[in-house]
Amino acid sequence: MLHFSRIKTAAILITVALGILFALPNVLPQSVRAHLPNWLASSRVTLGLDLQGGSHILLEVDGDALRKERAEQVRDEVRRVLRDQKIGYSNLAVRDTTISLRLRDPADTDKALVELRKLAAPVSTAMFGGGNSGEMDLTVSSGAEGALSLQLTQAGLEARMRSAVDQSIEIIRRRIDQLGTVEPNIQRQGLNRILVQVPGLQDPQRLKALLGQTAKLSFRMVDQSMSPEQALEGRAPPESDVLYGQDGRPYLVEKQVRVSGEDLVDAQPGFDPQNREPIVSFRFNSNGARRFAATTQDAVGRPFAIVLDNQVISAPVIREPILGGSGQISGAFTVQQANDLAILLRAGALPAPLKVVEERTVGPSLGADSIEAGKVAAYVATGLVAVFMIAVYGLFGGFALIALAVHVTLMFALQSLLGATLTLPGIAGVVLTIGMAVDSNVVIFERIRDEAREGRAAISAIDKGFVNALGTILDANVTSLATAVILFLMGGSGPVRGFAVTYILGLLTTMFTAYTLTRLMIAWWVKWQRPAKLPI
């Protein structure tokens, strides 16, 4: 047990050296980090919201909008199905979650029921994303004289809500990532709420504006059959809507979407080369480029409305066909507005609007106090552990303290490499593992003492002590690791998972430092001193 090959010794020393290297940027001043390579300078532990401050927003998916959109989708599908089957109907209307209509010929009822029931889909179960619950998301029933009714089911709406929340979390993450912030905490709360915490971002209004926009982009033609004012005074054409621009100006815009924002593949902020005003340049995929080219070829000389969340942000006149699949949006933007619009378009549209339920800004002063308190706790814990180990185990206690220092270094190196966020519970985890790190050494040293009391020679007692302690150390750490993993997987909140991450990393580094590194140092000491008596 005390023999180490050159390869094993080199691997241990390289691991320690790499740990020191990747943990070093956490303690170096900014002036020194600026001269380090980027791959090393970026290797730093990220402080959580409770330590460095930031923005906290609780969002809620708009269930009413989601139900309305789904009901309108079903209505459009009903219209398509009946038209394809050449079944006449009238009074097609949407009332909350019910779509109703009346067939012109009641004899078509059975045929219509068969075709419309094909629109219903089984509700997927939430567990592991597989199988279905046996329920359908839509029920179809008939009444007297050709009356038909399609009802959205509660199970289907809840499944759609879960899907919308999952999709919204991913889009929110993409939007925040492009702000340049690191390690946001984004998680589901209940059925329809999303918690967003962004450490280091002290501008919740910008975050709220960025997350609150649905960002559904569409390109439509401006209806020139009448003025917007005439449409507002009388009755607008059924195929057009009156929408307003950012300046409050009304526009009469066709309902038909010529090109959808879903066909965008890139959007970047920039400046117009002619007047140096901020713009957003965009680029379509092949399908969008083809539709955009066809639209601009057929509508030269007509205004083309660019609509974002039912607001006209620009309505330029098409001077010539745009065949390259790219273009630009201008609308008297500021630089930040152009940048935020580009972020929204790149990240994609939310499946439903998000409402802000709660918002607050956490100041850095509380975090500074927490960090200071954590430092004091760590210093006191380390000091007490050092006094105990030296007093009880002498030289071997000194070896254990060196291993403890390497243990803490490796913990921060791993957190830096993994991009983990250090929270206040994480600091508690660090302090906890300081005590746990020497626990394995205590077990080893007591086993060595037991072997020495039984009359073994010094070297034999050391070797046998490590052998006998290994099983106990593995049992204790493996069971603790299993608990920590379950805590990480099941602990929904950020603080709980932050503690679990620190705990897991602490257990892994303890196995290396308390057993392997300590054994290497004692093996060196035995080789150099050839002791006849144990200093323990």
Secondary-structure topology with pairs:
Layout: H1 6-23, H2 30-33, H3 38-41, E1 46-47, H4 49-52, E2 54-61, H5 63-84, E3 89-95, E4 98-103, H6 109-117, E5 122-124, E6 132-136, E7 138-142, E8 147-152, H7 154-177, E9 185-189, E10 193-199, H8 204-212, E11 217-221, H9 228-233, E12 240-245, E13 250-254, E14 259-260, E15 264-271, E16 278-284, H10 286-298, E17 304-308, E18 311-314, E19 326-329, H11 335-347, E20 354-362, H12 364-418, E21 421-422, H13 424-453, H14 458-490, H15 494-529
Describe the structure.
By secondary structure, the protein is an alpha+beta fold. Helices cover 52% and strands 21% of the residues. It has 15 helices and 21 strands. The strands form six sheets. Strands 13-12-18-17-11-14 form a six-stranded mixed β-sheet. A four-stranded antiparallel β-sheet has the order 9-10-2-20. Strands 3-4-8-7 form a four-stranded antiparallel β-sheet. The radius of gyration is 33 Å and the shape is elongated. It starts with 5 loop residues before the first helix and ends in a 7-residue tail after the last helix. Residues 127-131 have low confidence and may be disordered.
- Could you tell me the radius of gyration in angstroms? 33 Å
Largest sheet composition: 6 strands, mixed
Uncertain residue segments: 127-131
**Number of helical segments with 4 or more residues:** 15
Beta strands, count: 21
Q: What does the overall shape look like?
A: elongated
What fraction of the residues are assigned to beta strands by DSSP? 15-25%
Output the structural class: alpha+beta
Percent helix = 40-55%
For the largest beta sheet, what order do the strands appear in spatially?
13-12-18-17-11-14
User: Ends: how far apart?
Assistant: 19 Å
Mean pLDDT, to the nearest integer, reads 84
